[in-house]
Specification:
The protein is α+β, with helices and mostly antiparallel strands and about 180 residues long. The chain is built from three helices and ten strands; from the N terminus they run βββββββαβββαα. The radius of gyration is 19 Å and the shape is elongated.
Length: about 180
């Protein structure tokens, strides 16, 4: 249970990827006022593709907020009302060109629960068939990288793989096995 009531709530910003909401609250026990800024995000899907040879397919893509190339699992934002598995299937093909005969949900994560309501649904993709990717405009230059699980562990240990959704997806995959 929460220990406050919302006195006022307003959307301060409406964007293409997310909105920002400001809630003014009052704590039940003290009567003190507070403010909560919340990023409203539609959520997304992450896909951990495993080849028949047991390698995990990652992409390296430029991430604007960090101004650097980041190694990560294929992922994307949910369209309004979209099923997360549909999104995972779409993103796998868009970013890597692969399609999967078998997609299994591994779980979900809250990405930054202190200020954002984004939920990422994580899927395992198996029995892959190569094909042509259909990348979006901002995804030019994206590279596909296949890594063994030992290579993935090493990249996490040495700081080459720092993307939280990818590390979470790998952990869920290892716990499934």
């Amino acid at each position: 249970m929460n220990n406050f009531k919302i006195k006022k709530s307003e959307i301060l910003f409406k964007g293409k990827v997310f909105d920002i909401k400001l809630d003014e609250i009052e704590y039940d026990s003290s009567g003190n006022n507070g403010r909560r800024e919340v990023v409203l995000h539609p959520g997304g899907a992450v896909v951990l593709p495993v080849t028949d040879a047991g390698k995990i397919i990652f992409v390296r893509q430029f991430r604007y907020p960090f101004q650097e190339w980041v190694l990560e699992l294929p992922a994307g934002k949910l369209d309004p009302g979209e099923d997360p598995q549909t999104c995972a299937t779409r993103e796998l093909t868009e970013e890597t060109g692969y399609t999967a005969c078998k997609i299994t949900k591994l779980g979900y994560i809250y990405t930054t629960p202190g200020f954002c309501n984004e939920i990422l649904h994580i899927y395992l993709a198996e029995n892959l068939t190569p094909g042509n990717h259909a990348r979006e405009e901002g995804e030019e230059g994206m590279q596909i990288i296949e890594l063994t699980i030992d290579e993935v562990k090493n990249k996490i240990s040495n700081g080459e793989l720092v993307d939280a959704k990818s590390i979470s997806g790998v952990m869920m995959y290892l716990n499934k096995s």
